[in-house]
Design a protein that fits this description.
This protein has 329 residues and is of the alpha/beta class. It contains eleven helices and 15 strands.
Amino acid sequence: MPEIPLWITEAEVVSLVNVPSAIEALERILPMEARDQARNMKKGVLMVAENDAMHVLGASVTGAGLCGFKTWVNIRGKSSTVVILFSTENGECQAVIEATALGQTRTAAMTGVGTRRLAPAGADDMAIIGTGKQALPQIAACAAVLPLKKLRIFSRSAENRKRLAEAVKAQFDLDITLAETLEEAVRGAPVITLVTNSTQPFLTSDMVKPGVHINAMGAIVLARSEFTTDIFPRCGVVAVDNLETIKSISAEFRAHYGEDDAAWSGVRTVASLIEDNITRPADADLTLFKAMGMGLSDMALAVDILAKAREKGFGHPVPERIKTPPRLK
């Protein structure tokens, strides 16, 4: 008997997955891409205004018998994201998952995967640049994989810096500095996470000391940019979530690597980092991890969420679909 498709709400998603468990789900599922057991669909983006965009991405996870899409429209920072899962055996819909929290958790968990492998050993201090809705999950991801003690917060708004600090204090025991300038925030920080909607690069090489790991998690469309290209030559490892997406819509990477495929040969995917057990080289000046979103990371969480929802009896049955011929006249 086929499984009844489920609508899984945001509250149910949050009860079934957190950032640490999402990191583990990614560590299990992402290597399947390196083994040709999972595939990503190229991300699609269409700008609907100067800084607003509609998005679609997807992936198949043949080992789990599922494939699907995540889609949303971001209008002035607001969206209502959903993931739709289908069976790879018969094409039937298996679930519709409300996915705003899923996406925030996935994005943070990707940072956790990259930071676990590329941050300096024992790093207990980080800077977060940006105070939007992704900032707190990003901090949580680093706290999940590092012995984090100190946090520097910077954005252009003092009110937003203070608000994020209060949210952090409610969740974590960290020594927090509200930096008044970008330079103050990053000075001496061994881990720097960028999570902004900036349309102009702001982090430059001369701001960053040797031995730092940079997570570039904002700027997920071609119109946005967070760091200057003089960062790249200093990096012992440059890693990304999905190479084709980065080639298509990362302004920073396109400006540095251009159109020559050979120039991109040293860029590693996060799947290959996990599969080949790549970690930070002892002599690395900088390391860089850039993620713009890929279907496989969303599918990794969605597969886990659907399995847990069925096990716990969560979710709401979607009405039975009765296929009906179209009216021709």
